[in-house]
């Protein structure tokens, strides 16, 4: 019988961790960490070292076929532990990923609040953000059409403050009591548990029709916001109205917003669909990859503030979570910045076990009477009990960094050991009294409340169309066409006529043309007249186009460089260096992941490049742009390869910038069949469509990517600029995006 001694197995050892962004929280987490090393040895949970992890104790006979013994504590423990590894996944937002980081306050708002985290600009507050989809199970794909969760935990010196937000500033429903209904309707249907992580089905759209309050939200969900390019390129919104109270006891209503430094960008639908199969972990990997490469994602932290005295000054109710606070009426004031700078050490104990509660607030921050928020405050604590157990706040990732002292006791899996003879207050030892105001106790705002106890909604809560029109009016033409395409896709998946017919009719309340076009696409009615006149108003901040970074950047963008045997090394090296210099990530893609030589390179020189991936392994969908350097043999080989041709056509169809030099220009021309343009310097180009070409790939022609401006002349500058614009929308407007 063989006995295998494992080489790297574990006794307790404190892991060494990077200090960046770690702060007090990571220092605290380190105390609970173990790391397997060559010197550590496998033990049972009760500490005894084990001789094997492979062979169950058995009665051995001559043929070595005897029965196994239930006596074996090591085998039983191993199987028991495995049998109980799963905990319930989150009832919504089950699929997600997260990272650690830092919140820095640039500007104190002490005139609004006495919260330390919003007044002390010298602090670096440790944070954890978990991003998620809403509908899918834990193992579902990242790029499905859905709302994205954006949950921020700030480990402040005064306690944990959670902002449990989304990437869309509003919600489907107004009253928390409807939450189980909207989620039941959106999740897989009960009779067959289909579809997974999709809103494209009868029940979802039936609910949307039956609840006019959801109208504004489904317009957002059907827009490009529903298919973000990256968690790093989406906004976050606290959605609900909270309150801020200052030292004088004055109160303001507030909404919290996070705006990404990289701009707000989306995938295109065909790409999102393909990625769901080609790389279901696309968003998860994207976040980890960026942090690993030091391209730390950042968001500006903003507040919208309304004094109590102005609560009723608007044509919408400011406590209605299905309404935005339009930025032209209530501007965003940016006061700080969030940065993610550290990946998790272990997914389960950190990303899976982190638990958020809207009710987690710190002194200076309070709730409003928003009926959605009030219900959420009950729900989150409750759900953690079934997911993690009553002592879930003692789990390392959830522990505040400040002292936690109270007389809550016992319960399953209690960790903390509370010493002393008493477990109640007041007590004869005067042990552990409540805090005074001066000691930082949470001060309840003395809100006057008068009213009739009844179930009711105000008139403003019953108006559901005005802001849906505002949103739709504010979109660019391209974004509007995406809403039409998304609705057409979704309603096409509804096979009960009553569902798509009624919904199509409802769209006429927002925009008659939209309703008629959707009706035509899905076989629904084509309404003759608008259900409501469109007020024609627009507001800033609703279109994603409003968020292109003022200084163009391609930092952390994934760029594929396609080569084959005999590629042009001058063009390759210049492009590769330029991509790196602009903090983007170049990936070499070849026909095979085996060494490739440049044109004229001696195969015995040992200089060959081994591609990062081959065409089949990483498709064009996984990159933001592609580059094809020239080289006679290389281009001939690419031209003869169907996958390479498809790569170029697909990237073009997904509106991605394409750069080609030398012989590759003809290859791209052939693949795309675009009209030729001759520039003053004699080089052919298709720059109007984000295709940047250069016949002569001599170093002096390649330009120097130091600054990137719209008028940039150099080949590389033009390419970098095209990538910084995310996608070439003009192709779509001109109907050239069909070659996917
Ligand atoms: Fe919720 C999770 C965001 C309304 C009940 N919600 C959850 C998460 C996010 C949101 C980001 C995932 C947190 C994580 O990563 O662990 N939810 C929202 C937003 C809402 C909203 C922005 C509207 C403003 N939610 C909402 C209502 C209820 C819930 C009205 C119940 C009445 N949400 C839950 C929950 C979850 C949850 C069932 C599941 C897992 C969890 O809480 O921790 O309690």
UniProtKB/TrEMBL annotation:
Region (Disordered): 521-547
SUPFAM superfamilies, A to Z: Class I glutamine amidotransferase-like, Heme-dependent catalase-like
GO cellular component: cytosol
GO biological process, one term: response to oxidative stress
EC number: 1.11.1.6
GO MF annotations in UniProt: catalase activity; heme binding; metal ion binding
InterPro entries for the chain: Catalase, Catalase_AS, Catalase_clade2, Catalase_clade2_helical, Catalase_core, Catalase_haem_BS, Catalase_immune_responsive, Catalase_large_C
First-level EC class: oxidoreductase
Family matches, as CDD domains: GATase1_catalase (cd03132)
Residues binding heme: 380
UniProt cross-references to Pfam families, sorted A to Z: Catalase, Catalase-rel, DJ-1_PfpI
Active-site residue numbers: 93, 166
Keywords in alphabetical order: Heme, Hydrogen peroxide, Iron, Metal-binding, Oxidoreductase, Peroxidase
Free-text function comment from the UniProt entry: Catalyzes the degradation of hydrogen peroxide (H(2)O(2)) generated by peroxisomal oxidases to water and oxygen, thereby protecting cells from the toxic effects of hydrogen peroxide.
Family designation: Belongs to the catalase family.
Name of the protein this chain belongs to: Catalase
């Amino acid at each position: 019988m063989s006995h295998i001694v494992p080489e790297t197995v574990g006794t307790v050892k404190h892991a060494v961790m990077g200090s960046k962004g770690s702060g007090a929280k990571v220092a605290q987490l380190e105390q609970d960490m173990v790391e397997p090393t060559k010197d550590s040895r496998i033990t049972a949970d009760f500490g005894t070292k084990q001789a094997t992890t492979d062979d169950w104790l058995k009665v051995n006979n001559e043929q070595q076929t005897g029965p196994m013994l239930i006596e074996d504590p090591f085998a039983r423990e191993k199987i028991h532990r495995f049998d109980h590894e799963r905990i319930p996944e989150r009832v919504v937002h089950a699929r997600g990923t997260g990272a650690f980081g830092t919140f820095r306050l640039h500007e104190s708002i002490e005139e609004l609040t006495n919260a330390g985290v919003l007044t002390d600009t010298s602090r670096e507050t440790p944070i954890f953000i978990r991003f998620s989809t809403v509908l899918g199970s834990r193992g579902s794909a990242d790029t499905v059409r859905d709302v994205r969760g954006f949950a921020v935990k700030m480990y402040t010196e005064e306690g944990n403050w959670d902002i449990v937000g989304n990437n869309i500033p509003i919600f489907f429903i107004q009253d928390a009591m409807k939450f189980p209904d909207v989620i039941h309707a959106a999740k897989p249907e009960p009779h067959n548990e289909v579809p997974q992580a999709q809103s494209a089905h009868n029940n979802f759209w039936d609910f949307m029709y039956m609840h006019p309050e959801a109208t504004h939200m489904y317009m957002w969900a059907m827009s490009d916001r529903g298919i973000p390019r990256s968690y790093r390129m989406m906004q976050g919104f606290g959605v609900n109205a909270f309150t801020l109270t200052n030292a004088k006891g004055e109160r303001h209503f507030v909404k919290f917003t996070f705006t990404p430094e990289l701009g707000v960008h989306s995938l295109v639908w065909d790409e999102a669909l393909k990625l769901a199969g080609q790389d279901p972990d696309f968003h998860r990997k994207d976040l980890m990859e960026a942090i690993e490469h030091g391209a730390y994602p950042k968001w500006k932290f903003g507040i919208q503030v309304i004094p109590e005295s102005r609560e009723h000054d608007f044509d919408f109710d400011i406590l209605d979570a299905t309404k935005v606070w339009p930025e032209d009426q209530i501007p965003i004031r940016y006061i700080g910045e969030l940065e993610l700078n550290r990946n998790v050490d272990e997914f389960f104990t950190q990303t899976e076990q982190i638990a958020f509660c809207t009710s987690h607030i710190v002194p200076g921050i309070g709730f409003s009477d928003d009926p959605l928020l009030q219900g959420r405050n009950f729900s989150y604590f409750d759900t953690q009990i079934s997911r993690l157990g009553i002592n879930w706040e003692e789990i390392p990732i959830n522990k505040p960094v400040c002292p936690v002292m109270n007389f809550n006791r016992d319960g399953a899996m209690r960790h903390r050991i509370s010493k002393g003879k008493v477990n109640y207050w007041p007590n004869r030892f005067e042990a552990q009294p409540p805090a005074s105001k001066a000691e930082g106790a949470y001060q309840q705002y003395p809100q006057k409340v008068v009213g009739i106890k009844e179930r009711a909604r105000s008139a403003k809560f019953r108006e559901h169309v005005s802001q849906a029109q505002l949103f739709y009016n504010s979109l660019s033409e391209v974004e509007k066409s995406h809403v039409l395409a998304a609705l057409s896709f979704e309603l096409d998946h509804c096979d009960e006529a009553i569902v798509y017919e009624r919904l199509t009719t409802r769209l006429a309340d927002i925009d008659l043309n939209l309703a008629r076009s959707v009706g035509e696409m899905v076989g629904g009615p084509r309404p003759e007249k608008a259900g409501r006149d469109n007020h024609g108003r627009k507001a800033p901040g609703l279109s994603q186009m409003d968020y292109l970074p003022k200084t163009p950047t391609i930092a952390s963008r994934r760029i594929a460089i396609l080569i084959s045997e005999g590629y042009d090394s001058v063009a390759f090296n210049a492009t590769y260096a330029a991509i790196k210099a602009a903090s983007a990530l170049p990936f070499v893609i070849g026909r095979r992941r085996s060494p490739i030589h440049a044109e004229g390179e001696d195969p015995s020189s040992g200089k060959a490049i081994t591609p990062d991936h081959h065409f089949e392994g990483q498709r064009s969908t996984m990159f933001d742009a592609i580059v094809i350097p020239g080289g006679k043999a290389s281009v001939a080989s690419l031209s003869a390869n169907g996958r390479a041709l498809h790569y170029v056509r697909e990237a073009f169809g997904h509106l991605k910038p394409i750069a080609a030099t030398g012989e590759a220009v003809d290859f791209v021309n052939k693949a795309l069949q675009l009209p030729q343009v001759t520039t003053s310097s004699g080089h052919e180009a298709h720059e109007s469509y984000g295709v940047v070409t250069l016949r002569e790939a001599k170093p002096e022609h390649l330009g120097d990517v130091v600054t990137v401006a719209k008028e940039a002349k150099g080949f590389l500058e033009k390419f970098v600029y095209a990538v910084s614009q995310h996608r070439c929308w003009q192709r779509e407007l001109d109907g050239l995006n069909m070659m996917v």
